[in-house]
Write a structure and sequence with these properties.
Number of helices: 11
Number of strands: 19
Largest sheet: 7 strands, mixed
Order of helices and strands: EEEEEHEHEHHEEEEHEEHEHHHEEEHEEH
Mean pLDDT: 91
Low-confidence stretches: 1-18, 236-243
Structural class: alpha+beta
Length: 467
């Protein structure tokens, strides 16, 4: 089925007998896939993406393998979905991290099948992927060896409730030889492409950063365009138990497993847990971070009490936010990228909850698609959230902020509606990027969410997903 093009839809209402509405196609997002210099990627990783047969089209990659080749121990941390129906790869990866005390050396990912709600067979298949990838790594030394631990975490994405074609996946893994993997941009790009399901571009970024006068590198990839409203937490918090969000971030800095998990948990709350495409939490959402120390020389691992820890945590948070925003930009059928900023809240949690509610409101998101400055919907969403301090409507401000640096448009000031210039409002909302700013007037805490609009194309994609 072709994507919905610019066509005319008729809207009926009691006040307007036959207005028309033009359905806009989603803009091209190819520009968000950029060439990255080889020197920007972290040292000590070898990776690739291949076609193994999960997807029918032989030209489409569907299996990613990432190996840490550092001679130093590789620390690992992860945050997983809190959905009650945890997919088999989530359960297996949690077990791997626990038994390895946060030390793994590989990540294996398949796309095209989520291996979720697949019972005993699903668990056996996820473990088989772990063991097959373990076999690609050099044997641990006797001092490092733990007969109960494994070196690989596993991720899967795709249709829920179907078993993996495991023989094809295992053949794809076992066929890899050292020359099949690489560390240049092409290798990283292949790995990122093999993550994709309904994504329209591979989401890959890299940067360099400094810690204590030393230069380190960080690179990452993620995937996701639909079923996006993550709520992830560390594997040590199972009692709290959101197509899927998967991602990995790799660095050549040296960070202890405990410090890495602490930094990731903080970063995820301010990045991946602050995005929404459609308000739907997946069974498979997973973010993994590896730190292999390949560029650290004789420097000791960073611990939480070290002065450099806040610096690393800030860098990780910023990078995670950059990756998370790519998912929203690639939202299924999305024509807008909208930052929802909530300020003047009593607590960060209060601000985050309000931003989430606005970002997931179907009424707000459809108004965004229609470029309609219906700020009453924003207020209705805001007022529906219970806060630690009750909202005083006469302290609330709402403003539309254009991304082009031109003058913002206040629509509500201290609870009083402004005489809105509808032409100016249309100018702002017709931009691909803009911000909705809500000031609660209750405190000094703030939070941001990143969201997109709901379009006709989103309905088409998800009505036809399994066809």
């Amino acid at each position: 089925m072709n994507r919905v093009g610019p066509s005319v839809w008729r809207r009926f209402s009691s006040t307007s007998p036959s207005p028309t509405f033009v359905a806009k196609p989603a803009p091209s997002k190819a520009r968000h896939h950029v060439q990255i210099p080889d020197t920007s990627f972290p040292l000590g990783y070898s990776l690739t993406g291949v076609h193994c047969g999960v997807k029918k089209n032989p030209s489409v990659l569907d299996l990613t393998v990432i190996l840490s080749t550092s001679s130093k121990p590789t620390s690992a941390a992860a945050c997983f979905t809190r959905n009650a129906f945890l997919a088999a790869p989530v359960l297996v990866s949690q077990d791997v991290l626990e038994k390895s005390a946060g030390h793994v050396r590989a990540i294996v990912t398949n796309s095209g099948c989520a291996n979720a709600v697949t019972g005993k067979q699903g668990l056996e298949d996820a473990w088989a992927m772990v063991k097959a990838t373990d076999a690609l790594l050099p044997k641990r030394t006797q001092s490092e060896s733990n007969k109960d631990s494994h070196d690989t975490v596993v991720m899967s994405t795709g249709v829920i409730g179907q078993n993996l074609p495991i023989s094809k996946i295992l053949s794809g893994i076992s066929s890899l030889v050292p020359s099949s993997l690489g560390s240049d941009f092409a290798a990283w790009e292949r790995a990122a492409k093999a993550f994709m399901t309904t994504d329209t571009f591979p989401k890959l970024r890299a940067r360099t950063f400094s810690l204590g006068g030393q230069t380190f590198r960080m690179a990452g990839m993620d995937k996701g365009a639909g079923m996006i409203h993550p709520n992830m937490g560390p594997p040590t918090n199972p009692s709290q138990l959101h197509a899927t969000l998967l991602g990995c971030i790799l660095t050549d800095a040296a960070v202890s497993p405990q410090a890495l998990q602490s930094a990731l948990t903080y970063a995820v709350e301010r990045s991946f847990n602050s995005i929404s495409v459609d308000g739907e939490m997946s069974t498979n959402d997973t973010i993994v971070v590896l730190a292999n120390g390949a560029a650290a020389g004789e420097t000791k691992e960073i611990e939480e009490h070290d002065p450099l820890f806040p610096v690393f945590r800030k860098e990780l948070t910023s990078f995670a936010a950059e990756l998370a925003q790519l998912v929203v930009r690639d939202g299924e059928g999305a024509t807008k990228f909208v930052t929802v900023s909530v300020e003047g809240a009593p607590t960060f949690t209060d601000a985050h909850r309000v931003a989430s509610k606005i970002s997931t409101s179907a009424l707000v998101k459809t108004a965004l698609y229609g470029e309609d400055a219906n700020w009453g919907r924003i207020l209705a969403a805001t007022g529906s959230v219970p806060l630690s301090t009750p909202i005083n409507p006469y302290r609330v401000n709402v403003t539309f902020v254009p991304a082009d640096g031109t003058t913002p448009l206040p629509v509500l000031v201290r609870g009083e509606p402004e005489l809105v210039d509808e032409v100016r409002a249309k100018e702002i909302l017709s931009q691909e990027d803009f911000e909705i700013k809500v000031d609660l007037g209750l405190g000094s805490e703030s939070a941001q969410y990143w969201t997109c609009d709901f379009s006709y194309e989103y309905v088409r994609i998800n009505g036809d997903y399994r066809s």
